[in-house]
Amino acid sequence: MNRYFKAKVIENLSLNSSHNLLTLEPLDPAAEPNPGQFYMIEAGDSYDPLLKRPFCWLQKTRETIQFLFRIKGKGTSLMRAFKKGKVISVIGPLGNGYPLPRKKRTPLIVAGGTGIISLFSLINKLSHNCHVFYGARNKDELLLLNELEKLGNKLIVCTNDCSFGKEGMVNEVLSQFLSANESIKTSCLIYTCGPKPMLQEITSIAFHEGIRGYVSMEENMACGFGACQGCVVNTISGYKKVCKEGPVFPIEDIVWT
Amino acid sequence: MNRYFKAKVIENLSLNSSHNLLTLEPLDPAAEPNPGQFYMIEAGDSYDPLLKRPFCWLQKTRETIQFLFRIKGKGTSLMRAFKKGKVISVIGPLGNGYPLPRKKRTPLIVAGGTGIISLFSLINKLSHNCHVFYGARNKDELLLLNELEKLGNKLIVCTNDCSFGKEGMVNEVLSQFLSANESIKTSCLIYTCGPKPMLQEITSIAFHEGIRGYVSMEENMACGFGACQGCVVNTISGYKKVCKEGPVFPIEDIVWT
Amino acid sequence: MDLAVEIGSLKLKNPVMTASGTFGYGEEYSEFLDLNMLGAVVVKGISLKPMEGNPPPRICETPCGMLNAIGLHNIGLKRFLKEKLPYLRQFDTKIIVNILGNTIQEYVRLSKALDDAGVDAIELNVSCPNVKKGGIIFGTDKRALSRLVLKVKQSAGKRVIITKLSPNVSDITEFAIAAEESGSDALSLINTLRGMAIDIDTQKPKLANITGGLSGPAIKPIAIRMVWEASQSVRIPVIGIGGIINAQDAIEFMLAGATAIQVGTANFINPMATIEIIHGIRSYSEGKNIDNIRDIIGRIHGTAGHNNINL
Amino acid sequence: MDLAVEIGSLKLKNPVMTASGTFGYGEEYSEFLDLNMLGAVVVKGISLKPMEGNPPPRICETPCGMLNAIGLHNIGLKRFLKEKLPYLRQFDTKIIVNILGNTIQEYVRLSKALDDAGVDAIELNVSCPNVKKGGIIFGTDKRALSRLVLKVKQSAGKRVIITKLSPNVSDITEFAIAAEESGSDALSLINTLRGMAIDIDTQKPKLANITGGLSGPAIKPIAIRMVWEASQSVRIPVIGIGGIINAQDAIEFMLAGATAIQVGTANFINPMATIEIIHGIRSYSEGKNIDNIRDIIGRIHGTAGHNNINL
Ligand SMILES: Cc1cc2nc3c(=O)[nH]c(=O)nc-3n(C[C@H](O)[C@H](O)[C@H](O)COP(=O)(O)OP(=O)(O)OC[C@H]3O[C@@H](n4cnc5c(N)ncnc54)[C@H](O)[C@@H]3O)c2cc1C
Ligand SMILES: Cc1cc2nc3c(=O)[nH]c(=O)nc-3n(C[C@H](O)[C@H](O)[C@H](O)COP(=O)(O)OP(=O)(O)OC[C@H]3O[C@@H](n4cnc5c(N)ncnc54)[C@H](O)[C@@H]3O)c2cc1C
Ligand SMILES: Cc1cc2nc3c(=O)[nH]c(=O)nc-3n(C[C@H](O)[C@H](O)[C@H](O)COP(=O)(O)O)c2cc1C
Ligand SMILES: Cc1cc2nc3c(=O)[nH]c(=O)nc-3n(C[C@H](O)[C@H](O)[C@H](O)COP(=O)(O)O)c2cc1C
Ligand code: FES
Ligand code: FES
To answer: What is the pTM of this model?
Structure first.
């Protein structure tokens, strides 16, 4: 199957001033994605912006793929203006995605900010068999709350400014949880995605507590399918491509700088 | 008054596969244009395409300015996708426009292809006091036929393939008319706009028949208001800027190459 | 918020100027903006005698840029002094005159006359790619450039002399250093890059002159790199030019090492671009708690120890 | 409709190749297109030893272009021959290996090994702007370039040798002539232009390497001009590269004088770009009643009498 395909915009819903929910209908047969995989999406009608943008899939039906994106710069601003019926080109699913845990492991899902988008498809798949820790700067930045609650997981939400849920950073909340649940440490597995400083904190928690886990990384991308070598991160075994060997890496493999 | 203004798309009607009627509402006070003047219109949302595109105005109400454009390349293809409500930046009215004839002169309006768009506002102003010669490649390329008929001028339409009106080129039709109406030659004035080869033919007719007139020229433009020196045409008194000293020139002034 | 910067002895109220050839003689923009607000106006390149320029088509669009082969169409020194300078003098802004000649002698005569006329600074265009026997040799020949700058400085020494460098070279720092050592008070860069476009339908070049100068956002990364290299290799101020459309672009140049910037092609698309850039620089500084815009010049982080002079 | 072209003794079924560093080792694209359809595959630059490349971020977007500072991250000669070449050999297309070294000796050893391995042609990357002690000196020093080409030709003389020129020079024709006179069978141009971008929010360069190579549509006008100049100054075939996204761009290069073309950055945006370009060239030729694509090479009208060699 050719992962380069055309897709039609079915809906492009503005969730709030900085986030949109985009529903695409692939016009060519499209492969089934795994949780944590992503797509490269064409953002404009000209050579500016030139490159496609990487986005994780949120939900998939037989007919459509759904994305949730944050309006950040040039590309996503143009994407916000996508109208129903527009046809764009897309590449995907790309990358490795999250490996599913073995039966006995309890997944601890730790999401910071838009990191929740990447992890949502995983949570969805794992169903209520996991603990979800989700932090954002403030209430307005919290995404997918209703959906997460519906999934019926153990959900702990926190905001830096205490405008919703617990106060504090998601790494602090995770630490507290682990202190209170010593026994879980030997049987849990971390899945995390979010801003770099947070990921570093989670990594060091994982290291100190002896917990294994997976982290989904972000890097600037030109191709998304391993051809340009542009998207590397440093790992204990050298530079690895986020788009192909990642975006998900064993948490202990990343060399943070 | 500042001729750089923002305008909102009120309507963008597809007339046929290659022409759109665009209605803009200026959001800042906009000056009244003269027949034959033009506007520079922003075509895209990014730096590609970079430059604004020049278009003559077609009709003006107190609230709106209307344009008729042909889909040609990058910019006009993007303009075709303009949706209602979109806000773009515009500069105009620009250029000199057609000087109105003195009372006793009978205007002969000679339009080839999209040249009719430039001349339409003039015909509208002159009302039924003129002869209109309008040629196009074929019936499908004829624009504004109903409107022209409504204006009640002496209208002669021709198509190269004889799919509508007379057969032949508009310069041939003009020649025939002049042969049949010898007396008009001393009291008429030509206004013409269209493809270069046609304009050259009209110029040579005017020269041989001793008729004076005006021609509206096209050149690539960067600014539209006299700053870049990019848009010159060669005239008997040297290079002149189409955007400022034109687009309308005395027909006898142009040096054709 | 202090936006003032200095180009040699020239004090500008803010770092935003217009780039030569894109702002006419100032008049063309007076309906769109208040010229008093600009740091400086740099006028279209002036030669001793009026020049007709190249035949049309003279411009064409390219991806995120444009090619021009105006061919230095200008009204000549005499008419400039008589018809255009008095107009510009009304405004509280600095007047910088961009000049070009075929010989050192021509540059010298132009500089003397402009010095006498009391313009604020003279910018030497040594890099226009569109004229066959034009200044181009000075732009790509270090020794010719040195001689030119030296002679101009000798004859119009009171005036601030800005040397505008050509980007069509392997190593911009050699030219930057040559101009500095010959006494140039400042550098401006970049002029346009030589380019070409062909209409595949007619199979003809899109410009009558065949090649032209590439400007616009497309060239910004090259300009930023050259400004960074040049500003690190000389002590005189560097004026950044190339693809500046908005305040973000202007700040990028200042971080790279530019003391001031010139806005070119952007003026065509948005005749109020310069004013919006001035406002945008102010907001940026306020947002970052910068009291003095001079504090950001060359303050790019994370480049310590990098030897930018070697390729 | 005959699309075949010749690069020295190398016969290509059509003029469309992939540009080095943008097509991996071919495999990465096999799900998107049939490699058998391509004129040639040019693989990522190979060095004697594997190279780690530069730290991230390695790429960033610019207006109509991108900067890259991959730093020639590659698996090295040995693994290439063992792991990648056999895969490519399955296809009915030509295999061109782009190589780079720090010394002439390294280029010679690479060429010998690749000659022995029977690749179809060797492309000398003398212009990568991202490696400190890399091939760059050869790209901007005529004499060094001549020596390099001469030595490589002597040691791998059977193979078609293509010299890939750097655009970061004042006069491309000098380098074109130097390569031809030293025995190069063909030229390819352009490699990327050196550029830089700064994040004004963090005030850091957008690339860890500070500068990188600019590619994409932004550079096309410069590339077209250089291909036109180079092709008029030498007799050997010129391969056009730089911002080719679609068939129109490819044809523009051929009209300017390119015998074949390479598609680079476009592969990232549209992995089927090369195939669409082949189809587009065919339609264009049919529309213009051109029986043989070779008939359009350098057939730009209206340039007679123009002396393109002088700046
Ligand atoms: C594997 C992966 C999955 C992602 N999934 C999502 C998602 O589901 N929802 C979402 O909102 N965002 C996601 N992102 C981030 C998203 O790709 C960027 O926010 C987006 O590319 C910004 O584009 P822009 O043009 O608006 O910003 P600009 O800053 O104008 O972009 C300039 C360039 O930088 C790149 N860039 C900017 N930010 C990032 C970033 N964080 N990661 C990678 N490249 C970046 C752009 O792609 C572009 O090439 C993901 C990133 C990666 C790597
Ligand atoms: C004074 C004037 C008035 C005009 N009025 C009208 C009008 O009312 N309706 C209409 O349909 N067309 C009009 N045109 C032509 C119109 O400007 C072009 O068709 C349009 O610019 C094409 O843009 P594009 O991006 O689609 O084409 P592209 O070919 O992609 O454009 C590339 C570049 O060439 C320029 N260009 C291409 N064709 C022309 C042309 N014929 N004249 C000037 N520049 C050109 C573009 O502006 C752009 O800068 C007018 C032109 C001029 C000079
Ligand atoms: C139409 C046009 C005319 C120009 N004329 C001159 C000139 O007379 N003298 C000069 O030094 N530079 C001239 N330039 C170069 C600009 O001053 C500037 O260096 C270049 O365009 C890059 O900046 P930009 O990308 O902001 O346009 C001209 C540029 C354009 C586009
Ligand atoms: C990510 C990337 C990697 C590249 N790697 C190489 C390389 O290894 N060797 C080389 O000669 N050129 C390399 N190039 C240059 C391209 O082959 C080509 O010359 C350049 O990108 C211009 O063409 P384009 O605009 O079509 O991309 C690379 C370019 C890019 C974008
Ligand atoms: S984005 Fe190109 S290799 Fe990962
Ligand atoms: S378009 Fe700039 S002077 Fe006419």
So the answer is: 0.96
